[in-house]
Amino acid sequence: MAGAIPYAATGSGDPIVALAGLWPTIGVESDRLVRGTLAPLRRLAASRRLVVFNRRANLPTGLTMSDLAAEYADDIRTEFGAPVDLVGASTGGSIAQQLAAEHPEVVRRLVLLSTACRLGPVGRDVQRQVAAYLRRGEIRSAMSLIGANLAPRGFRTVARGLAWTAARRVLADPVTVADLAATLEAEDSFDLASCEQPIQAHTLIVAGGRDRFYGNDLFTATAALIPNSYLQLFPRRGHITVASHPGAHAMIAGFLSQS
């Protein structure tokens, strides 16, 4: 635990801090969360300390991305005492962008994976629907909508059914449901362009050309908003599948290995 925010860590050396994407549960007890978030960083595990943060419990209603970023920045200062290499995936990438813009002293280098300067129309519509379902207690509807929209084309019907079946087991705690809704609502209003100053850290943006939650135009816009950035698109990968591309792994490892 770093301050109030739970994390899992492995390895030793200079830290790489990863902010997990929109996971249905709080904490870092799930091996799938840790393995999935760290997969693009595995080439660095022999020489670096890899740290995965997930969201804390009891998030307040009306939370903003700026609020979340401030909490993460405080905990990074407390735990590491020096700027870190920061990796943000999906919703974790939105938090990472806000953090890097508003707390530049805690970020040395930044990797953004499957995330952009704001949600695209599809992503915003889906997340608003999911948050509304969660607030009304319609857990199965919320999870099935998430499952269908995260799955690759051709697997969406199956993913919808599996998510519907697992919903009550995955989101069994009312606090977890409320925290997930609060995070979705915070991301709804996130826009990097509204930050008072641009991100200063050298930044690598890795994304899939078939990402339905953002879109190529928003990835390009994100690169334009970050002066010291490089964008790498993998045209045939989507929001989830780009994280397993060997080329993405190599690019991220190379970027974080630079002096």
Descriptive key words:
alpha/beta; seven-stranded mixed sheet; 44% helix; 15% strand; 259 residues
Low-confidence stretches: none
Beta-strand content bin = 15-25%
Strand order of the largest sheet: 1-3-2-4-5-6-7
Number of separate helices: 9
Ends apart, CA distance between termini: 29 Å
Tell me the helix content.
Answer: 40-55%
What is the chain-wise order of helices and strands? EEHEHEHEHHHHEHEH
| Strand count | 7
What would you call the structural class?
A: alpha/beta
Mean pLDDT over the full residue set: 89
Largest sheet: 7 strands, mixed
Rg, Å, rounded: 17 Å
Shape: globular
Task: Walk me through the topology.
Blueprint lengths: L6 E4 L4 E5 L11 H8 L10 E5 L11 H16 L3 E6 L1 H12 L4 E7 L7 H15 L3 H12 L5 H15 L3 H15 L13 E7 L7 H10 L3 E6 L11 H12 L2
Parallel strand pairs: 2-3, 2-4, 4-5, 5-6, 6-7
Antiparallel strand pairs: 1-3
Describe, in plain words, how this protein is organized in 3D.
The protein has 9 helices and 7 strands. The chain is globular. The model has no long low-confidence stretch (mean pLDDT 89). β6 (202-208), α8 and β7 (229-234) form a beta-alpha-beta unit. α2 (65-80) packs across α3 and α4 runs antiparallel to α5. By secondary structure, it is α/β, with parallel strands linked by helices. A 7-stranded mixed sheet has the order 1-3-2-4-5-6-7, with helices on both faces.
In short:
Strand 2 (15-19), helix 1 (31-38) and strand 3 (49-53) form a beta-alpha-beta unit. The protein has helices at 31-38, 65-80, 91-102, 121-135, 139-150, 156-170, 174-188, 216-225, 246-257, and strands spanning 7-10, 15-19, 49-53, 84-89, 107-113, 202-208, 229-234. It has nine helices and seven strands; from the N terminus they run ββαβαβαβααααβαβα.
